[in-house]
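Internal tracking record. Fields below are filled automatically when a chain is submitted to the structure queue. Please do not edit lines marked as system-generated. If the sequence contains nonstandard residues, flag them in the REMARKS field before resubmitting.
Queue: standard
Priority: normal
Entity type: single polypeptide chain
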Amino acid sequence: MSRKEPLRPVYWIHGEDRAKVDMAVQRLVARVEGEGGMPPERFEATDTPATEVGAACEAMSFGGTRLVLVRRADQWKAADVEPLVEYLADPVPTTCLAMVAQGAPTPRMLAAVTAAGQVLAYGPPPDTRGNEKARAKWFRAFVQGEVRRHGATISGPLADEVLRRAGRAGSDAGHLGNEAAKLALAAGDGPVGREHVDALVVGDPEARAYLLGDLIVAGDSQAAQDLLGDLAGGSDTTEPIVIQRLLARHFRGIAVAQTPGATQADVERITGLRGYPAVKVTEHARSIAPGTGEWCVARLADLEMDLRVSALTDLGTSRADGGRMVLEIGVRDLLGACRRR
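SYSTEM-GENERATED OUTPUT FOLLOWS
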């Protein structure tokens, strides 16, 4: 949507990069008002039928271009949008219809918008949904592009590290854009280094718990204990009970994945894990002996009880010290189980 181009009768603005979607909407509103148009008439698709929006589009304008702005337009079903599809066959020249959504339009709406106006997409392509590898590749390129946009550079492996530390927010373009801006500012006009990532990108506890799960399944005792020390006693402390819960969820997913005939879809349905976490537990289930997941789930249940009522938590100079010791014993047992079984 360039100021050099004439304003189109319709725009469908969508994508997971909510910051850029909102920016595009703000630019459109500013352009209409800057060209002497009226403030936007705002609708929510969840509250307003498409027939009512169509009627608003066809109303006469006495103050320049009218902007009709519809949020959550992808909530309309295919049959719901037929009145607007018909309207777009011959749109009112003095009306600009902007439909804002997270998802892509229905096929007929897509054809109508493409013929009369423009589709503006911000975020990973819709065909990457369910394909975590393709999405990770897109988000890596996104982080690198955002860092470049702010005047610096970042390598692919370091961009991957930013995604890993972000955890669930690694699929949130707005969050990643903020992280990229921080890193570029710190790096100046040079490359982002490991020291910048370590200093500025705080690891999400869930992401680090999955890394801890990686190390436990791999049987890497030293690295697991080092990470555990950072989680439970570093500058960005995570409570032992939180670590226990995250590990319990992870190993429950492994136990489900080790059930004969289970698929990743079963893991997602039963545990609620989605995307990267579901992929990881499926990989882990294949790398350790059958039954190990169930054993670890039982040990983690005992660990929860120990963290709540065991006298061991009273050892040390504080209850926090005792809790960390109980957690370390539990992780040691999990490491042993993954090596033995």
